[in-house]
């Protein structure tokens, strides 16, 4: 009997990286888990299969985070197909790179649609389903607290918007016992930013621990906020960056 036994979670962008690790961890802690994917159907199926082979319950839903109606439908389907909703993890993300003179309005629209509008729609839809004591956890970025290099303005701005959303909904939904928090990962070994990729040594040198994080490191912070220990934490930012912002 895990700490999340009887709970239902939805993780957006759950087919790989931090999302897959989070879905797997929440399931290991006892939650039934739905996860969304955009194109990686086979990889989402692998996550579901891994959870089910470990004795858990999981569901993969096709939903492009840039499509507001698809995100709303995924939230509704989670509550309907799994019988409830207790935990929402806004994880889907993109990584636009370019200095302020290089990024375009199309880049802006695409980034804000995935990082901000999708989270807003998911939260707004989930609010009708979340049971008392529900949890909303958004995955942001340590680049909200410190921007160490050029080319990150659009990305950092979009992730910063999650902080304002989170603080606002912590007040809106707090009377129902629902918490809202942001987890800010630093350099994490994923396909988007591999620990052996170009520029990885420079990123590693910025940390106090002199290493990249793992998706499991971030998932552990999400699991804490989703579990009994996080019941009195809301409107907060938890940074999992190996000390980059120390």
If you had to describe this structure to a student in words, what would you say it looks like?
- The chain has helices at 17-28, 41-53, 68-81, 105-126, 153-173, 200-206, 215-226; strands at residues 8-11, 32-37, 58-62, 85-90, 130-139, 179-185, 236-240.
- The chain has a single domain (8-237), classed as NAD(P)-binding Rossmann-like Domain (Rossmann fold), CATH 3.40.50.
- The mean pLDDT is 97.
- The longest helix is centred in the middle third of the chain and has 22 residues, at 105-126.
- With 246 residues, the protein is an alpha/beta fold.
- Helix 1 (17-28) packs across helix 7 (215-226) and helix 4 (105-126) packs parallel to helix 5 (153-173).
- It has a seven-stranded parallel beta sheet with strand order 3-2-1-4-5-6-7, with helices on both faces.
- It is 41% helix and 17% strand.
- It contains seven helices and seven strands.
Descriptive tags:
246 residues; alpha/beta; Rossmann fold; 7-stranded parallel sheet; 7 strands; globular
> How many domains?
1
Question: If you average the pLDDT, what whole number results?
Answer: 97
Kindly provide the name of the CATH class.
Answer: Alpha Beta
Q: Please provide the ordered H/E string of secondary-structure elements.
A: EHEHEHEHEHEHHE
Q: What's the CATH H-level homologous superfamily?
A: NAD(P)-binding Rossmann-like Domain
Shape: globular
Please mark out the parts with pLDDT under 50 across 5 or more consecutive residues, or reply none: none
> Number of DSSP helices?
7
Pairing-aware structural class of the strands and helices?
Answer: alpha/beta
Spatial order of strands in the largest sheet: 3-2-1-4-5-6-7
Radius of gyration using CA atoms only: 17 Å
